[in-house]
Amino acid sequence: MSKLFQPTQAGDIALKNHIVMAPLTRNRSPGAVPNDQNVEYYRQRATAGLIITEATAITHQGQGYADVPGLYSKEALDGWKRVTDAVHAEGGKIVVQMWHVGRISHNTLQPADGKPVSSTNRVAKAKTYLVNADGTGSFADTSEPRALETAEIPGIIEDYRKAARAAINAGFDGVEIHGANGYLLDQFMRDGVNDRTDEYGGSIENRARFTLQVVEAVTKEIGARRTAIRISPVTPSGESYDSNPQALFAYVVENLAKYDLAYIHVVEGQTGGERDYRQGDNPSFDYKALRAAYEKAGGKAAWMVNNGYNKDMAVETVENGTADLVAFGKPFISNPDLVERLEKNLPLNTPDQSTFYGGGAKGYLDYPLLEKVA
Ligand SMILES: Cc1cc2nc3c(=O)[nH]c(=O)nc-3n(C[C@H](O)[C@H](O)[C@H](O)COP(=O)(O)O)c2cc1C
Fold first, then answer.
1. Mind listing the pLDDT tens digit for each residue in 188-208?
2. What distances in angstroms separate CA 267 from CA 179, 270, 284, 329, 349, one per listed residue?
3. Based on CB atoms within 10 Å of each CB, which residue in 43, 154, 197, 243 is the most buried?
4. What's the pTM value of the predicted model, to 2 decimals?
């Protein structure tokens, strides 16, 4: 049997295989509270070695889309406890993706209709997702943000720390800090967005400071071996460009090496798009060099990869040691029993894009299992 299907370890988390369910926003938690449908959705997918939840806002300010869950109200945490209990009852493992969207938000989603916060005052040419009064969803332009004052940043780091503690109390096996896809931490890391002149802007060291301080606070609170981070070195979502992503992310991972993290999660290429995507005039990103930089600095965390993987690629990547874990996104939307299908070389259901974001059970809970197909 291929190594892909055999047990492994990510920090303190024991996985029954090397297959991970990638974080997938589904906009089905009105009021930011996980509900019965969400419990059932994650329960159905508990044969994954590890489930990473959909991105989950650490605070109301961290919200950027309608009907995404949070980690900050008692109701939400009670809802998540039911999700983690259901996954554990099936023998699965689950971590929560901790999210602050920064400027990828809309006034109407913010506390007191305020401006979203970011590294900059400049608005992103990007869309967010709102639910209209009649219950239908639609995409809308993101609102103008305000640059965080330097003195406000420790408060947001504290929000991450509290959310991590709340997540562990809600039964999660660990947390994944969302450092990818153009959200708050990415908005600080990249020189195409970050135009600050304080100690959080300018040099790579300054731009990476916020992310690394979040990692420091979270690892201190819940332990490094239950802490992970996701990065997407070249993904341009939310106009998150950088003039030298190779140098930026080498610095980031070198500075993560001193923590005994559960895993580092790297989206290779443009999230959901080309695997060989390049930012601007930059050369192709060298992911092997990224891992080598991490390991040279003493890093030992499991290395997780994602983006457009199929079974053959995943088997090869894990067998040859390029990565330890492979995360699948869209295939897990439409195949709750993805692990079994991959193992037995059985056909996969095709995901229905029209039901990705928002709605009810259709396209969420009703993808057929193998036994029903056969
Ligand atoms: C419907 C949908 C929602 C997503 N939501 C998130 C999310 O909440 N957090 C995140 O980091 N990535 C998110 N992604 C990106 C996926 O985690 C993954 O990187 C992407 O789908 C590529 O992997 P795949 O080719 O296996 O689908 C989302 C993708 C899709 C299709």
1. 999 999 999 999 999 999 999
2. 11, 8, 14, 11, 23
3. 43
4. 0.98
* CATH number for position 320: 3.20.20.70
pLDDT band at 288; cut points 50, 70, 90: very high
CA of 272 to the centre of ligand 1 (A): 7
CA 308 to ligand 1: nearest atom: 25
| DSSP β-bridge partners for residue 96 | 175
Ligand 1 test: best mutation among 24, 177, 265, 348, most atoms within 8 Å of CB?
A: 24
> What is the phi/psi pair of residue 220, to 5°?
-65, -35
Enter the DSSP assignment of 124. Answer: P
How many domains would you assign to the chain?
A: 1
* Side chain identity at residue 182, one-letter code: G
Give the Cβ contact number of residue 301 at 10 Å: 25
- pLDDT tens for 217-254 read 999 999 999 999 999 999 999 999 999 999 999 999 99
Q: DSSP assignment, residue 274?
A: -
Closest CA to 81 of 166, 189, 152: 166
| DSSP type of residue 273 | S
The tens digit of pLDDT for each residue in 104-146 reads 999 999 999 999 999 999 999 999 999 887 777 888 999 999 9
Range of the domain at 325: 3-373
